[in-house]
């Protein structure tokens, strides 16, 4: 499977958030593209599905920066919904909201009406685990994607952000976790 090195919609959406994301921009952009490629490797996509995935990957963690909170899923959902409304794609709202809301679900997402939700969950798991979990994707492909889109400190950012929650709330799961 070839690596998608650029995608016009991803570039357009992320460019509008560059100032908000600030110094973490390259790290987040790499995460977005790694996830996008892992989604495509997990699921043969139509052009419509690729567009849905492009939108979801751009917005799935954006609340970390837009609202400066570890409870970032609600603002990420709001930002995605606003984008979908502004771009005339409201009919995709439920599916994209589920992709964003369930991307940290511990167990598989069971509803087969929206197969992209589980694909999206797995792709985030692959990237956040640095490829430890491959979800059936060839390790050589994961390595190639990671080489093409360097981390730029994204995992360090996640550890620092999540670690502060863990220190303050050692017995409570982080607010973004779903069972």
Defining key terms:
single chain; 179 residues; mainly alpha
What is this structure, in a nutshell?
The chain is mainly alpha-helical. It has helices at 8-21, 25-42, 47-59, 63-66, 73-86, 93-101, 115-128, 139-148, 154-168. The protein has one domain.
Q: Can you offer a commentary on this structure?
A:
The protein is mainly alpha-helical and 179 residues long. The chain has one domain (8-168). It is built from 9 helices and no strands. The longest helix has 18 residues, at 25-42. The protein is globular. 36% of the residues are buried. The mean pLDDT is 91.
Proportion of beta-strand residues: under 5%
Q: List the uncertain runs.
A: none
Question: Per the principal axes of the C-alpha atoms, what is the gross shape?
Answer: globular
Q: How many separate helices?
A: 9
Helix content: 55-70%
Distance between the termini: 32 Å
Count of separate structural domains: 1
Structural category: mainly alpha
Report mean pLDDT, rounded to a whole number: 91
> What does the radius of gyration come to?
15 Å
Count of strand segments: 0
How would you spell out the order of helices and strands? Answer: HHHHHHHHH
* Largest sheet report: none
Write the layout of secondary structure elements.
Layout: H1 8-21, H2 25-42, H3 47-59, H4 63-66, H5 73-86, H6 93-101, H7 115-128, H8 139-148, H9 154-168
């Amino acid at each position: 499977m070839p690596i998608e090195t650029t995608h016009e919609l991803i570039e357009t959406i992320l460019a509008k958030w560059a100032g908000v994301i600030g110094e973490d921009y390259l790290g987040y952009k790499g995460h977005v593209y790694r996830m996008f490629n892992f989604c495509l490797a997990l699921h043969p996509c139509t052009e419509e599905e690729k567009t849905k995935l492009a939108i979801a990957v751009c917005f799935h963690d954006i609340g970390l920066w837009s609202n400066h909170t570890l409870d970032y899923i609600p603002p990420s959902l709001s930002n995605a919904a606003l984008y979908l409304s502004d771009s005339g794609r409201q009919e995709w709202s439920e599916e994209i909201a589920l992709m964003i809301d369930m991307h940290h679900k511990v167990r598989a997402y069971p509803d087969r009406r929206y197969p992209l939700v589980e694909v999206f969950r797995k792709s985030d798991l692959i990237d956040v685990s640095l490829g430890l979990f491959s979800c059936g994707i060839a390790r050589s492909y994961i390595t190639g994607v990671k080489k093409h889109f360097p981390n730029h400190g994204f995992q360090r950012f996640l550890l620092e952000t999540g670690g502060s929650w863990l220190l303050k709330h050692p017995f409570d799961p982080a607010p973004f976790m779903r069972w």
